[in-house]
């Protein structure tokens, strides 16, 4: 399987190299960290010719497959759905598989770093466990009472529309790891967990909204949000995250008063 | 092709290898399954709401205060003991100043509490910074309230 992909890709690369007119020379400045070699993270430069219409992920593939096999990063689907390859590219959190090289000025070195606020394990791979722990803490599953219905739980189009935006989340952690409150205090739930809670709080079929609101009402919940909009800017799915957080705040206040 | 931006360290015995990896760089206060669950109070909700509401009231109080003290009718040059004595003879200005004192102090203290929570990394640092903050706030509020209520224009 993987060798077939490799061959296909290298033949594609060979095709591209034969017609080199449209290629540009790009420097990729990558943050490397390998605890088996050093306790320090260093910047390493890779310079090569690449089609500017390629994505940053293609460049990382070229480095890993042709230049330096020790480069470590996560990617699964490579098409912006699995959320594995969120990284800090030119100082902003993006998905490497959705970022075209021409869109981020290939004439200057392109910096690639792991996302911030999580423990770096190697190169661009971080420990996602605290991120998923926060997600689990808001109980991101349907909670109902009473007997199971004998058919689907039906919902009107308007009711579905109420939480449509937050169903798009792919849990890439681009938002949470762009949040300055999360950088300073990992106990904060972070935008992604609140988005996950929002998706069920505003679902007309769900009956656990009260419990989730109670969880997000605590010290590390929605009240720590400073509305800096970093999360909304970082989201590769275009979710209006800050708005979703504000809606949870409003629900908490209107529940009280 | 690949060029290191930092020079490689040439040690005879490497400090770290596969058997002895370097310690990972942990972020401050990571969330784990042992992270304490919420206190189940509405303190943060009321704190957040207080900041918004007191902010609106303070805009009027502080701008009005500055206008009266610094701009209208000769401005800052007419301020003195007699001016303050004259104003605090009226219960209206006493109430104005009292409300402004309490709201501004609590608003500022809550804001600083938020900043300390966000930026103090160690538990000890956070605890002591907040202790100092609360003491200073209580002291200033009590002293100011005392002065407003016990002000004696015939003190000399």
From TrEMBL, chain A:
Annotated cofactor note: Binds 1 [4Fe-4S] cluster. Binds 1 [3Fe-4S] cluster.
Reaction equations catalysed: a quinone + succinate = fumarate + a quinol
EC number: 1.3.5.1
Cofactor(s) in the UniProt record: [4Fe-4S] cluster; [3Fe-4S] cluster; [2Fe-2S] cluster
Pathway assigned to this chain's UniProt record: Carbohydrate metabolism; tricarboxylic acid cycle
SUPFAM superfamilies: 2Fe-2S ferredoxin-like, alpha-helical ferredoxin
Keyword Metal-binding (UniProt): yes
Record key words, sorted: 2Fe-2S, 3Fe-4S, 4Fe-4S, Iron, Iron-sulfur, Metal-binding, Oxidoreductase, Tricarboxylic acid cycle
A Pfam entry, by short name: Fer4_10
CDD domains, A to Z: fer2
Domain 2Fe-2S ferredoxin-type: 24-118
Domain of life, per lineage: Bacteria
One GO BP annotation of this record: tricarboxylic acid cycle
Any one GO molecular function term: 3 iron, 4 sulfur cluster binding
InterPro entries assigned to the protein according to its UniProt record, in alphabetical order: 2Fe-2S_ferredoxin-like_sf, 2Fe-2S_ferredoxin-type, 4Fe4S_Fe-S-bd, 4Fe4S_Fe_S_CS, Beta-grasp_dom_sf, Helical_ferredxn, SDH/FRD_Iron-Sulfur, Succ_DH/fum_Rdtase_Fe-S
Enzyme class: oxidoreductase
Residues covered by the 4Fe-4S ferredoxin-type domain: 159-181
Family statement: Belongs to the succinate dehydrogenase/fumarate reductase iron-sulfur protein family.
Entry protein name: Succinate dehydrogenase iron-sulfur subunit
Record organism: Streptomyces zagrosensis
Automatic annotation (TrEMBL), chain B:
Subcellular location: Membrane
CDD domains: SQR_TypeA_SdhD_like
Pfam family, one: Sdh_cyt
GO molecular function term, any single one: metal ion binding
The keyword Transmembrane helix belongs to this UniProt entry's keyword annotation: yes
Parts forming coiled coils: none
UniProtKB keywords: Heme, Iron, Membrane, Metal-binding, Transmembrane, Transmembrane helix
Source superkingdom: Bacteria
InterPro entries with a match to the protein in the record: SQR/QFR_C/D, SuccDH_FuR_B_TM-su
Protein name as annotated: Succinate dehydrogenase / fumarate reductase membrane anchor subunit
């Amino acid at each position: 399987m993987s060798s077939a992909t490799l061959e296909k890709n290298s033949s594609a690369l060979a095709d591209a190299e034969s017609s080199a007119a449209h290629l540009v020379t790009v420097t990729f400045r990558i943050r490397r960290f390998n605890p088996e070699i050093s306790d320090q993270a260093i910047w390493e430069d890779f310079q090569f010719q690449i089609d500017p219409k390629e994505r940053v992920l293609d460049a990382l593939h070229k480095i890993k497959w042709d230049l330096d096999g020790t480069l470590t990063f996560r990617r699964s689907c490579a098409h912006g759905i699995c959320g594995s390859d969120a990284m800090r590219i030119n100082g902003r959190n993006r998905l490497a598989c959705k970022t075209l090289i021409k869109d981020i000025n290939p004439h200057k070195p392109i910096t690639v770093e792991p996302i911030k606020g999580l423990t770096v394990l190697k190169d661009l791979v971080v420990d996602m466990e605290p991120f998923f722990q926060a997600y689990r803490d808001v109980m991101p599953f349907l909670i109902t009472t009473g007997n199971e219905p004998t058919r689907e739980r039906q919902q009107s189009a308007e009711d579905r529309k109420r939480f449509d935006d937050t169903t798009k989340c792919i849990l890439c952690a681009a938002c949470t790891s762009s949040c300055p409150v999360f950088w300073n205090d990992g106990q904060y739930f972070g935008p992604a967990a609140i988005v996950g809670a929002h998706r069920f709080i505003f679902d007309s079929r769900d009956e656990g909204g009260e419990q989730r609101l109670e969880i997000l009402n605590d010290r590390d919940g929605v009240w720590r949000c400073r509305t800096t909009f970093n999360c909304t800017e970082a989201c590769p799915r275009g979710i209006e995250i800050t708005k979703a957080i504000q809606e949870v705040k409003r629900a908490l206040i209107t529940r009280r008063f | 092709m690949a060029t290191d931006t930092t020079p490689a360290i040439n040690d005879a015995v490497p400090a770290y290898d596969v058997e002895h990896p370097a310690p990972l760089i942990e972020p401050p206060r990571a969330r784990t399954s042992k992270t304490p669950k919420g206190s189940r109070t509405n303190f943060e909700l009321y704190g957040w709401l207080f900041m918004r509401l007191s902010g609106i009231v303070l805009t009027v109080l502080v701008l009005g205060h500055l206008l009266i003290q610094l701009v209208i009718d000769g401005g800052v040059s007419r301020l003195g003991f007699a001016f303050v004595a004259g104003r605090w003879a009226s219960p209206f200005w006493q109430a104005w100043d009292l409300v402004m004192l309490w709201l501004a102090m609590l608003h500022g203290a809550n804001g600083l509490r938020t900043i300390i929570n966000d930026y103090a990394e160690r538990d000890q640092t956070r605890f002591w910074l907040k202790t100092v903050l609360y003491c200073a706030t209580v002291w200033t509020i009590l002293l100011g309230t005392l002065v407003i209520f016990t002000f004696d224009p015939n003190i000399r």
